[in-house]
Specification:
The chain is an alpha/beta fold. The protein contains 14 helices and 13 strands. The chain folds into 2 domains: about 180 residues, Rossmann fold, CATH 3.40.50.2000; about 170 residues, 3-Layer(aba) Sandwich (Rossmann fold). The strands form 2 sheets. A 7-stranded parallel beta sheet has the order 3-2-1-4-5-6-7, with helices on both faces. Strands 10-9-8-11-12-13 form a 6-stranded parallel beta sheet, with helices on both faces. Helix 2 links the parallel strand 2 and strand 3. Helix 8 packs across helix 12 and helix 11 packs across helix 13.
Length: about 375
């Protein structure tokens, strides 16, 4: 077995913007920093570069690897080879299909340990994906992602290891959010939806559920946390439905667990997921979730035990379950207790650290 302390790791992804994939990369940087010789990150950049700097981890900015223009592919290839040579990289860990493609295309896997973490399920580009992942030690963030890799892309089951996403425990003192506090002082329940404002997160179905919730319970307010390309469209929908006094956009928040701990309920309205962090974050602070029954979400939320599952694109089901949880304090308390237990048993940060460390060590032979 090669010594982990002598390894130089390159984490290669598309961006370091806000999102679950980027959060996992930051977790891995923190996990491996005490054990390896060097860590560098390669992407087209983003707001999380600041956190890399705080961790004293070098970041290389390259063109967006989603750009498949031949001149861009040539530029990225040259830059990637130079980074690997100059930094004496021994392990390349990709977090995007195009990143894995470059490792396959340049045959970097012949010189470096090649690991890829798959964060989502897909059903397109089958031949391309099989080519990109053929020589990788594959990590799936959940059982549904593994199933997707094996059944959709025909990759060998033995090639895929499942390591669940995780979040750190929230150990800080709660910093009271004045706006949420004000809503509670008015006697309101506060329901939140946290995530990128994009098609994937299905926020419009959450917003469309609000009028019917209000018909059942007038003392409920809703907050949406995050930014993204659909922000204007979603704000327009709130105006069209005359919900400006009921649904509030809080923008990007870096204190998600702190904020979640002050909500009464979290909704995840996604249309697809790999293994989403939002319910894990909610569970880590003892909050329960009403979530769409998609892909990896069903590996976290146990319907009727630690939360409720609803059909995707179904605002009426969201309404029914939100009202049921808020109107039944005993049920809510039971869900919250089970949610916290689920986090501690299955999605703790220590489990992620130990699993990835074992994954690396077993392959460094």
């Amino acid at each position: 077995m090669r010594d982990l302390s002598k390894q130089n790791i390159l984490f290669f992804t598309r961006t370091m913007e806000l999102g679950g994939t980027e959060n996992v990369i930051l977790q891995l940087c923190e996990t491996f920093k005490p054990f390896v010789n060097k860590i560098v990150v390669c992407s087209c950049g983003g707001v999380n570069e600041k956190k890399l700097k705080e961790l004293n981890i070098k970041h290389y900015t390259i063109p967006d690897i989603e750009n498949k223009n031949p001149s861009c592919i040539l530029t990225v290839s040259k830059m990637l080879k130079k980074i690997i040579k100059n930094e004496n990289i021994t392990v390349v860990h990709t977090h995007h299909r195009m990143a894995a493609f470059y490792v396959a295309f340049l045959k970097i896997y012949k010189k470096c340990l090649f690991i890829n973490t798959s964060h989502n399920t897909f059903d397109n580009k089958v031949k391309f994906t099989r080519y990109a992942y053929k020589h990788a030690n594959l990590v799936a963030c959940g059982e549904m992602v593994k199933k997707n890799l094996v059944e959709t892309f025909g990759l060998p089951e033995k090639q895929v290891t499942v390591i669940h996403n995780a979040v750190k425990p929230f150990v800080d003192q709660i910093k009271v959010d004045p706006f949420i506090k004000q809503l509670h002082e008015k006697g309101c329940f506060v329901v939140g939806n946290i995530g990128r404002l994009s098609e994937q997160k299905g926020m419009e179905y959450f917003i469309n559920a609000i009028p019917t919730v209000k018909l059942c319970m007038s003392n409920v307010k809703f907050v949406i946390v995050g930014t993204g390309e659909d922000e204007k469209k979603l704000k327009d929908l709130v105006r069209e439905l005359d919900l400006k006094d009921d649904c509030y956009f809080l923008g990007y928040r870096s204190d998600v667990q702190n904020l979640m701990s002050q909500l009464d309920l979290v909704v995840l309205s996604s249309l697809w997921e790999g293994l989403p962090l939002t319910p894990i974050e909610a569970f880590s602070v003892g909050r329960t979730v009403v979530a769409t029954a998609v892909d990896g979400t069903v590996e976290i939320v146990n319907d009727g035990i630690n939360g409720y599952l609803v059909s995707p694109k179904n605002s009426l089901e969201i309404t029914e379950k939100v009202v049921e949880v808020l109107q039944n304090k005993e049920l809510r308390n039971s869900f919250e207790k089970e949610a916290l237990q689920t986090y501690e048993d299955d999605f703790s940060f220590n489990q992620l650290k130990n699993s990835y460390k074992s994954c690396y060590e077993s392959r460094l032979v």
